[in-house]
Each structure stands twice: as structure tokens, then as C-alpha cells.
């Protein structure tokens, strides 16, 4: 059976090949390992294989894992919250995570900024955009991104980094790339409009296990990969 370390190696090779094919420099695309539903042992295994950035969808599960990893003394970890956020969970997120990629309304961003402890770095945030208008999906509509970005950029304890999206699974590479290219165009347009108001606007988080190559082809700067690293998730979560 392939180990997490083998899988990570393979994902890195897929990314390197996609960068080569599409004229991207490998250093432009970072890898977020999505460890949701897997235990801290899986995180430790990936950490031993050189992985540092991890993504979690469920706040309670994520916080428990962050604390378990701290008890193990794993150095250099960076934790990203990538799941839908409710108001009553923002304090836990503000106190434990380094990044939140799923900001899709101002009220949540305001709470995160208010609740971010002074002793920590500002919370790094991305706005989640519903790029393909998928039904019952989180994320702000594309034409509402700029207004939200302007408001988020003004919050003192947040640092606005860019956009995140999760398009519907596409039929093939070209279809996937078309949607990702829309996200890239929006990312560039909003970044230009923000100018100095969001000096750290550098992150376009898109691409998962099944479509990371198409995302790299369309300018992704961060792919979020779960099952290709950790294997199939044993239990589905809402
Ligand atoms: C689960 C999840 C991923 C990883 O998905 P895989 O298909 O397992 O790679 C990436 N992003 C988000 C927001 C997720 O919820």
C-alpha cells in the first residue's frame, strides 16, 4: 500500500509536471495538504515527509488536531481553515488557525478581526468566490467580490491574500481550465482595483486532487489536495 510519503512524492511530481507543461515556475504553486477526517498521525507522517501547510474543514476537528500537533511538538506547521464558517465558530478559528480561505461575508470577517489575539500575527484570509454559480455552494458571487475585498482589506487584524474557489467537477481538463481561468481573471481584476489597499494580494487558491493540473494551467498559486495524499476519506461529513 502506498504511504502518505509516497503519495506526497507523487503529488509533488504531478505539480512539477504541470508547471513544466504550462510554463509555471514550481515555486509559484504551493501545496496545501487537506487533512480533514484524518488523525494527527497522518499529519505527523506528512510532516516527516516535508509537508508544512495543512487544511481543515471542520472547526472543532481542526482545533483538536492543531492542539494534538502542538503536543507532539511538530515544528513549522501552518493551519488553514477551508470550510464554511458560522459566527459561533469564529473565535476558535481566530485563536488557532493561521489562514482562513473561506471568508464569504463581512460579518464573519469582522468577527475574525475582532477576535484575533494581539499576540498572534494577523490572520491571513482569502475570499471564497462561487465562480461557477454552483447551486447551494458557499462563496460570494463574482460581482460582489470587489466590494467585500475592499471592506475586508480595511480590517486591522486580517491580511487579505486573495481568492479561493471550489468549482463543480468538470467533464475534462479543458472544461476545468475554462472555469479556473475565469477565477484567474477575477483575481487579477480585483487585485488591480485594490492596489495598495491589499499589498499582500498574492494567493489564488484552486485545484484539488482531481483537477490540480487544470488549476496550475490557469494560474493557481495554491492547490488544496486531500485524497491524493491521505487516501480516500473514511467518513463523509456534511
Ligand atoms: C476536501 C477539500 C479539498 C480536498 O479535496 P480532494 O478532492 O480530497 O483533494 C480541497 N478543498 C476543500 C475546500 C475541501 O473541502
UniProtKB/TrEMBL annotation:
Gene Ontology terms, MF aspect: pyridoxal phosphate binding
Record keywords, A-Z: Pyridoxal phosphate
The Alanine racemase N-terminal domain, residue ranges: 7-232
Record keyword Signal present: no
Keyword hit for RNA-binding: no
A Pfam match: Ala_racemase_N
Cofactors (names): pyridoxal 5'-phosphate
Residues modified to N6-(pyridoxal phosphate)lysine: 36
InterPro entries: Ala_racemase_N (IPR001608), PLP-binding_barrel (IPR029066), PyrdxlP_homeostasis (IPR011078)
HAMAP family reported in the protein's UniProt record: PLP_homeostasis
NCBIfam families for the chain: YggS family pyridoxal phosphate-dependent enzyme
Its biological purpose: Pyridoxal 5'-phosphate (PLP)-binding protein, which is involved in PLP homeostasis.
Annotated family: Belongs to the pyridoxal phosphate-binding protein YggS/PROSC family.
Protein name as it appears in the record: Pyridoxal phosphate homeostasis protein
Organism: Tepidicella xavieri
